[in-house]
Structures are given as structure tokens and as C-alpha cells.
Write a structure and sequence with these properties.
Shape: elongated
Number of helices: 12
Distance between the termini: 37 Å
Order of helices and strands: HEEEEEHHEEEEEEHEEHHHEHHEEEHHEH
Bound molecules: adenosine-5'-triphosphate, manganese (II) ion
Strand content: 15-25%
Strand order of the largest sheet: 6-12-13-18-17-16-15-14
Helix content: 25-40%
Number of strands: 18
Radius of gyration: 27 Å
Length: about 475
């Protein structure tokens, strides 16, 4: 008999088929009629399938009647139309093979609802809960959409290094990579002698694959990267991880407006795919996590994003009459409270802010003619705030070198990046989308630690 899945067996078309299903028991209920109902889940979809285990099964008394939540089984039998409400099909078991029990005295996932905080201490078991199963499927769907979107448009998937010698953001919040003995560091005078380290120089975990993506965009046209990214920022917020996944498209011959158009189409595509491919999971998020999430996503998929310069945004925030913990002021980075005000109060939809002050953005963003703003763009969405950060890149060698020096960076160290401007320079643009913030946005989940399998945050790397 073929191995099947709960997802397939739950479809009305499966009625009459013999199937073999393997998974974990969510609940067991015994009927007075001398048989039992098992709710079986195998992760293939949100819903369980009801298995009817007859008292005549050889192992009914010895095993089936002892099954508890979390036990693993393989069931074979026929799919029948179910007389019960809310489930099209059920399985009439001919055999139930028990693989492993789960002692209810010690197994932590009993039927009651657990807090997400508690479940974070059980990162190895939480994928067995409704919420984390749904998050895992939606996260997978988002990743598939990301690849589909770019592949369909002729982008090449490129792989920048994870260990890097350059600090893309110039912010210095990087994890060091070393094989030196920390108890016995080799010294050159006072300083650590990195010449003796594995790579013969200081190296870090990447904060962004952008500079390397630019190399490929400036050779092959349209590319994207998609991989893990690391930031050693000590921020304990619901939107920051020390290890997260970022998608970074980079396109030659794209200006900032092309970049905005791409970002908007990209986000809408992800949203439409999730609504279409994960209806059951999304229904769950709408019922249990955020009662507005589906309506919000449908609204975003169908509306045009607002495009507003940073200067206009600051002006609007100042004139809004709202009180903020940090009043908005030209020249300061916008706070999450400002981003949320714009998307949730002022416009009630995503907002793309552009042309930020040069002083608060990295050296590689293209300087505007006003000399004080750069062609940056941030895409802000309700609840989450910044979900995408991007820019048109500075393609003029002299301006780029000047900006590096202004920000205290040594152009020599970026000689290969500058070569892209020395030889056949082109206007180009790109952006970075945080995968976890995207999953937060589409699911309505409040904390970023609950949308990545094993979150890395300050003080936490248990699993
Ligand atoms: P923020 O201001 O919110 O800290 P950022 O400006 O540092 O973000 P970028 O460098 O523009 O972020 O990175 C691009 C995208 O990567 C962000 O828009 C966000 O979606 C995501 N991102 C950035 N930092 C983190 C983080 N620590 N954890 C999770 N996602 C992140
Ligand atoms: Mn940003």
C-alpha cells in the first residue's frame, strides 16, 4: 500500500481509497461501543484526520487503548466519508502499528494551551503544536514564493559567502569568526595578531550579502541572494534576531523607482501565494492570533503602496498631533513608533519612504543632487514596521570614495567593490527583505522568536 498523507486523505476525493498514514496522535477518545477515535496529525496540513480504531484490532486492548497525546503510529485502512461535522473524511483502521508512546506524566505538550514563552523553552517539541506547524508551513510557502518570483523573472540565484572580511553596513555589529585560542591570543604589540588566525586576517559572519550580490549584478544583470545573516546587535525586541534570513535582489540598470516597483510586486506576490496555498493555516491565524490578518493581507495585495519622501514623512509626523516617545526630527532615524503610525494611522497600508538623510544611511547609497539625502528606500508595513531596506547604489567612483572616507571607512579595504565603478560602472539598485519579519507580517505572530525554528537572541542558543 502506498504511503499517503493526512492532507490527501482528508480530501473528499480520497473516499474509498486504501491508505497508510503515519504521524502523531493528538488525542484519543474511547467510545462506549468498544472502539476508539484517534486524532492523527502528520504535519502535511493543519487539520487532523479522525481514525476509527475498532475493538477487534489485535492490539486494541494492549496498545491502542493506551495511546496518549504525542504517541507515534502508522495506520492503514480505508478512507470513508465522515458523518461528523467539519471533516469530510475519516479512516477505518485495519491495522494500527505503534512506534513509540509518550508518557503523559512527563510529556509537556498536553491538550491545554501553552504560552509562546513557555513553548520557546521547548523548541524541539513546539513544531508539534498547531501554531508552530502552521508557521512552518507558511514559512515554507513564503520561501517557495521568493524563488518562484525571481526565477520567473529571470533572476539568477547567487550565493555570497557567510564568512566575510568586509563589514557591509559599517555599523560594526558583527560576530567575529576565529580559530585563535581566546585564552592565549597571539599579539603584535598590544593588538591581536590576526595574521596567525585561520584566514590570516579578521573575519566575521556576514551582515548582508549585498556587496557580493553587486559583483554579480554588475556582471550578469539581475540576481538575488537568500541566506542566513548575522547581527550581534544587543536588541531584545520582538523584531530582531541575531541570526535571520534575508533575501537580497540586486539589479543592474534599475533606478530607485524600478526598485520600488519590484519590491511592491514582490511583497504582493508573497501575500497572494500564502493566501492561496495556505488557506487552512491562515484561517487559524485569523481566528487565534490576529482577527484582522487576512483582511489586512487582502487589502495590501490589492492596494497601491504609498510612496513618500523621508522629509515629507517627518513633516507629517510632526504635524500629526500624535505624541511619540521620541518626537520625529529631520536627521534622526525613524523609530518603530513612527513607522507604525504612518502605516497604521495615517495611511492604513504599506508605505515606501525614500530619500533619507545621508548621515543615517550606509556609504553605498546614491547621493542626491541636494547633497544631503541619499536614494534609500524602506518599505514599512502595518504592525511590523520596516520589512525591506534598499537603495539605488552609488555608481560614481569619486562620490563613493568620498562617502566612505566620511564614514571612517578605508577605500583600500574595498578595492574590489570600487573596481565595479572603475570598469564599466552602471546604475544599479537592490534591497533586502527580512524573511522572519515577512512571516510575522503574513501570520500576525507578535514575536519574531516564534517564526524561526531555533531563534538566536542575546543569551539564547540552547537548541
Ligand atoms: P531595523 O532598523 O529594523 O533594525 P535595519 O535597517 O538594520 O533594520 P537593514 O539593514 O535595512 O535593516 O536590513 C534589511 C531587512 O532585514 C530589514 O528591513 C528587516 O526586514 C531585516 N532585518 C534587519 N535586521 C534584522 C534583525 N536583527 N532580525 C531580523 N530581521 C532583520
Ligand atoms: Mn533598514
Amino acid at each position: 500500500m502506498d504511503k499517503s498523507s493526512v492532507a490527501l486523505a482528508r480530501q473528499p476525493a480520497a473516499v474509498g481509497r486504501q491508505v497508510q498514514l503515519s504521524g502523531w496522535v493528538r488525542t484519543r477518545r474511547d467510545s462506549k461501543g468498544g472502539f476508539s477515535f484517534l486524532e492523527l496529525n502528520d504535519g502535511s496540513c493543519f487539520g487532523n484526520i479522525q481514525v476509527i480504531a475498532d475493538g477487534k484490532l489485535a492490539n486494541y486492548e494492549s496498545e491502542v487503548k493506551k495511546l496518549t497525546a504525542g504517541s507515534s503510529v502508522t495506520v492503514s485502512g480505508e478512507v470513508r466519508a465522515s458523518p461528523a461535522q467539519g471533516q469530510p473524511t475519516e479512516i477505518h483502521a485495519e491495522t494500527v502499528t505503534v512506534h513509540g508512546g509518550a508518557d503523559p506524566e512527563t510529556y509537556a505538550l498536553q491538550k491545554k494551551r501553552h504560552s509562546f514563552e513557555f513553548l520557546r523553552t521547548l523548541a524541539h517539541l513546539r513544531p508539534r503544536t498547531n501554531t508552530f506547524g502552521a508557521v512552518a508551513r507558511v514559512r515554507n510557502c513564503v520561501c517557495r514564493s521568493i524563488h518562484d518570483f525571481f526565477q520567473e523573472q529571470g533572476f539568477l540565484y547567487v550565493h555570497p559567502p557567510i564568512i566575510t572580511g568586509s563589514d557591509c553596513e559599517g555599523a560594526g555589529q558583527m560576530f567575529k569568526v576565529t580559530t585563535l585560542d581566546l585564552g592565549k591570543l597571539p599579539r603584535q604589540g598590544q593588538a591581536v595578531d590576526f595574521a596567525q588566525d585561520f584566514f590570516g586576517r579578521p573575519t566575521y559572519l556576514t551582515v548582508s550579502g549585498q556587496l557580493e550580490a553587486e559583483v554579480f549584478a554588475c556582471s550578469l544583470g539581475k540576481v538575488y541572494t537568500f541566506g542566513p545573516t548575522f547581527r550581534a546587535e544587543n536588541s531584545n525586541t520582538s523584531r530582531h534576531l541575531a541570526e535571520f534570513w534575508m533575501v537580497e535582489p540586486e539589479m543592474a540598470f534599475y533606478d530607485l523607482h524600478d526598485n520600488m516597483d519590484l519590491a511592491e510586486a514582490f511583497l504582493k506576490r508573497i501575500i497572494r501565494d500564502v493566501l492561496q496555498r495556505c488557506p487552512e493555516d491562515m484561517q487559524f491565524f485569523n481566528e487565534r492570533i490576529d482577527p484582522a490578518v487576512i483582511a489586512t493581507l487582502e487589502g495590501v495585495a490589492d492596494s497601491e503602496f504609498i510612496r513618500l519622501s523621508y522629509t515629507e514623512a517627518v513633516d507629517r509626523l510632526q504635524k500629526s498631533g500624535a505624541t511619540f516617545e521620541f518626537p520625529a526630527a529631520w536627521g534622526n532615524d525613524l523609530q518603530a513608533e513612527h513607522e507604525r503610525y504612518l502605516t497604521e494611522q495615517t495611511f492604513k497600508r504599506p508605505v515606501i519612504l525614500y530619500d533619507y538623510p545621508s548621515t543615517i544611511k550606509p556609504f553605498y547609497m546614491r547621493l542626491n543632487d541636494d547633497g544631503r539625502t541619499v536614494r534609500a528606500m524602506d518599505v514599512l508595513v502595518p504592525r511590523v514596521g520596516e520589512i525591506i531596506g534598499g537603495s539605488q547604489r552609488e555608481e560614481r567612483l569619486d562620490v563613493l570614495e568620498r562617502r566612505m572616507k566620511e564614514q571612517g571607512l578605508d577605500p583600500e579595504a574595498y578595492w574590489w567593490y570600487l573596481d565595479l565603478r572603475r570598469y564599466g560602472t552602471v546604475p544599479h539598485s537592490g534591497f533586502g527583505l527580512g524573511l522572519e519579519r515577512t512571516v510575522q507580517f503574513v501570520t500576525g505572530m507578535g514575536n519574531i522568536r516564534d517564526v524561526i525554528p531555533f531563534p538566536r537572541t542575546p543569551g539564547n542558543a540552547e537548541f
